[in-house]
């Protein structure tokens, strides 16, 4: 296939999907990664098209491979069919022997909170899922906060996840642990197996197709998708994903519990829930609210209004 034919395939992909991705999310075009001369023409066309749609290099590569596999599976190239088949991304069904303990498909309103006092406060306010995101390098302070958070949710029915501090979480008997991509890479040998065999749930943050595939290979209890909208709470290596991408991620990962996170307020709950995710995580919408308990009630109502 010559360069003109590859350009035709690329143009067909852009024509079919520009309005959905580039139009709604407004992410700038990315440089097309270098391509081997012998690469599959559909891969080449999709890599260039996805870069033009604003996908960063690793995600454009992941998508281009999926386009190639999709065309092989179907026996034809279909520019209108955005890849969403698990097999085209190399995703396999979880092996029960290697999967983490399950959690509900819908974790509901998910509050990410700075300390154990906030955890207890929001658990008592009826928030169904809470996360302790306590930032400290002091092992004693970490241990005390994790222990206090576990105690704070007792009798409330809230599910408690501990961010990063996995050993303290295992020691305290927390419901689950949440880790980011960097934390996943930095875990010592045997850590995932220790968490898995303990029956503790595991959630993993992702920021695009490549990280989603990497997280899925671990077979976690849930996958977090973000940041959906701009957020000032932490420096993000990737641009906000936007609703169109979030919907595409949810379609690919259907059957996996999903948590949308990043800059989400009450006014965006309907649009976020419409993408198909089962849970919405919030930070500022609660901790910066004049009346956090009233805000929790409002957000729970907003969540249940859009099943």
From TrEMBL:
<keyword id="KW-0460">Magnesium</keyword>
<dbReference type="GO" id="GO:0005737">
    <property type="term" value="C:cytoplasm"/>
</dbReference>
<dbReference type="GO" id="GO:0046872">
    <property type="term" value="F:metal ion binding"/>
</dbReference>
<dbReference type="Pfam" id="PF02581">
    <property type="entry name" value="TMP-TENI"/>
</dbReference>
<dbReference type="InterPro" id="IPR022998">
    <property type="entry name" value="ThiamineP_synth_TenI"/>
</dbReference>
<dbReference type="GO" id="GO:0004789">
    <property type="term" value="F:thiamine-phosphate diphosphorylase activity"/>
</dbReference>
<keyword id="KW-0479">Metal-binding</keyword>
<dbReference type="InterPro" id="IPR036206">
    <property type="entry name" value="ThiamineP_synth_sf"/>
</dbReference>
<comment type="pathway">
    <text>Cofactor biosynthesis; thiamine diphosphate biosynthesis.</text>
</comment>
<dbReference type="InterPro" id="IPR013785">
    <property type="entry name" value="Aldolase_TIM"/>
</dbReference>
<dbReference type="GO" id="GO:0009228">
    <property type="term" value="P:thiamine biosynthetic process"/>
</dbReference>
<protein>
    <submittedName>
        <fullName>Thiamine phosphate synthase</fullName>
    </submittedName>
</protein>
<feature type="domain" description="Thiamine phosphate synthase/TenI">
    <location>
        <begin position="116"/>
        <end position="286"/>
    </location>
</feature>
<keyword id="KW-0784">Thiamine biosynthesis</keyword>
<keyword id="KW-0808">Transferase</keyword>
């Amino acid at each position: 296939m010559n360069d003109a034919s590859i350009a035709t395939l690329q143009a067909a992909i852009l024509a079919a999907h520009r309005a959905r991705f580039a139009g709604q999310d407004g992410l700038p075009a990315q440089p097309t990664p270098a391509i081997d001369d012998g690469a599959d023409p559909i891969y080449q066309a999709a890599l260039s098209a996805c870069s033009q749609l604003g996908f960063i290099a690793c995600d454009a590569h992941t998508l281009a491979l999926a386009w190639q596999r999709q065309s092989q599976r179907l026996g034809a190239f279909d520019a209108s069919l955005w890849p969403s088949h698990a097999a085209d991304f190399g995703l396999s069904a979880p092996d029960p022997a290697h999967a983490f303990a399950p959690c509900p498909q819908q974790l509901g309103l998910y509050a990410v909170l700075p300390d154990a006092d906030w955890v207890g406060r929001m658990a008592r306010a009826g928030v169904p899922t809470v996360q302790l995101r306590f930032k400290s390098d002091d092992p004693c302070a970490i241990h005390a906060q994790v222990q206090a958070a576990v105690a704070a949710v007792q009798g409330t029915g809230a599910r408690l996840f501990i961010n990063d501090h996995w050993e303290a979480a295992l020691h305290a008997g927390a419901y689950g642990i949440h880790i980011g991509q960097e934390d996943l890479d930095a875990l010592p040998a045997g850590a995932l197996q220790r968490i898995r065999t303990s029956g503790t749930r595991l959630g993993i943050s992702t920021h695009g197709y490549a990280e989603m595939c990497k997280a899925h290979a671990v077979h976690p209890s849930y996958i977090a998708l973000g940041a959906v909208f701009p957020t000032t709470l932490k420096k993000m290596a990737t641009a906000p994903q936007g609703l169109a991408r979030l919907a595409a991620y949810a379609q690919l990962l259907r059957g996996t519990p999903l948590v949308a996170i990043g800059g989400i307020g009450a006014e965006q709950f309907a649009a976020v829930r419409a993408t198909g995710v089962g849970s919405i995580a919030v930070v500022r919408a609660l901790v910066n609210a004049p009346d956090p308990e009233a805000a929790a009630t409002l957000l729970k109502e907003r969540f249940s209004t859009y099943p």
